[in-house]
Model the fold of this input.
Amino acid sequence: MTATDQSPHTTGSVPAPPGDGYESEDELAGWVPPRQPIRLLAPLLGLLIVSVVWETYVRITGVSPLVLPAPSRIVRHIASDPGFYLSHGWVTLWEAMAGLVLALVLALAVATVMAHSRFAERATMPVIVLIQSTPVAVLAPVFLLWFGFSPWPRILVAMLFTFVPLVSNALTGLRSVDHDTLEVLRSVDASKREIFWHLRLPNALPALFAVGRIAMSLALVGAVIGEMYGGSDSGLGRKALQAISRNLVDQLWGSVLALALMGVVLTLGVMALEQRVLRWHSSQSHLD
Amino acid sequence: MHATLESPVVVAEKVGVSFRDRSHSIRALANIDLTINAGELVSVIGPSGCGKSTLLRVLGGLLPPTQGTLRVWGDAPEKGREAKRFGLVPQTPALLPWRTVRENLTLLPRLNRGAGRGPVGDEEIDRLIGAVGLAPFADTLPGKLSGGMQQRVSLARAFALEPPVLLMDEPFAALDEITRSEMRFLLLKLWRETSATVVFVTHSIEEAVLLSDRVIVMTSSPGRVACEIAVDLARPRQQGLEDGDAFHHHTVELRHALQRSTTAFSGMDPSP
Done:
């Protein structure tokens, strides 16, 4: 956390304080390559390489599009009917985000109670382990039975997919506060609420963002699984399943690619938010 | 907030602390008799594990004593804590890494409003940041500062509360020798401008002599007061004091007192 823990090229940006015997390490840092363009380029390059290899493989082997269509073919297909993918993608996105937000709110509430009471923690733990061990995908038809033709079965599956990782990380973050800092706040008789808002919650943010990136794609997977059990005729998961039964190869791969791209964009969104919010945290120091 | 001289702020009588550890209880402190007067700077020195930090936490109302009576301004220490009369400086800087230097200083005055000690003005905060030499870094996050600079923020934060009692738990122990020396004089400078009573826990003989009006020597298992030594060096104390004979005389006296107390109480005779 201190400046001295950081790698040499980050300490170079620390201005030298007056009379502290603390020297700027600019000379030691040497030449630092411009990182801004590379940061954007590297992930694109990775995707490009995968696409090129895939495309080349399909063209060389002449494999049937029924088995594996070329990426160019999938992209062309999506471009031929963008409205279809946008509208069904929107449905899936909405279900996934509703599930994720509900899971986050519930996880924070449960973790807060658990962080303040060992008894509550012991009482809640078995329930959480139970949720974790339950094959939620198998429960989806039950939710359909309960909630019928509404978005709730899908939202619920997305929520249960993300709840356990969120709650366990939230609990760790809320609990693992610095002992001395806690004592300083207690020394002025700060209330539990003040300690929660000023110390515990910000302290939990790094752990929450770390799991948030994973939870984003988990929520999408949850929504898609929920859609597969029916109850509605929309959503990319539903459309992918229909494509399988009707032998619509392009629609199947189009739905899969659209879901994957959605996951990538959402994860990048979380990371961008993390970068802004966690400016203070050491996990972000390499970006300065 | 000026208390009359020689009026006791802290009065401890036969104070003891025992921790329960399943079947048996462990005595951390026993029979502590202590009087600390208003405006005094008192150091508590002793070997590691002698209960110095425990004593500090008891004085600050963070840990209730299990035996004896303890009064801080005539009240139980918890009352003092509720009234925000304590400024705590722990061994680590204990800053909130997501708040800038200035935001760290303004936080504590804003907490526990019920104590009736309202927020500190911006000018006072700026003055304190300047006094600890961090004016250019007022809007910097703590993670960008060196360990010594972070500890200066921690010191300024405690003074920002304008507390009548400052409780310091080896705040300079983790710093390098040069920074530590600077910090001691910085503390004396800040303290001179207040009328605060300071209880300063340390394991450094030089630090205790340099800072204190009085040094309380503790001994371990359970922690007890072995003796008290008055340090009558003139104030204000300036850099270079450490070189003088009077300073040297006091460090020797304190070192002997520490040696006497550890051998006398542990039952170990260093000479065969």
Remarks:
- The beta strands of chain B are 8-21, 24-37, 41-45, 67-72, 86-89, 165-169, 197-202, 214-219, 224-230.
- Residues 147 and 175 of chain B are 7 Å apart (CA to CA).
- Chain B touches chain A at residues 57, 60, 62, 81-82, 84, 86-88, 90-92, 94-98, 107-108, 111-112, 115, 133-134, 136-137, 141-150, 157, 161, 167, 178-179 (CB under 8 Å).
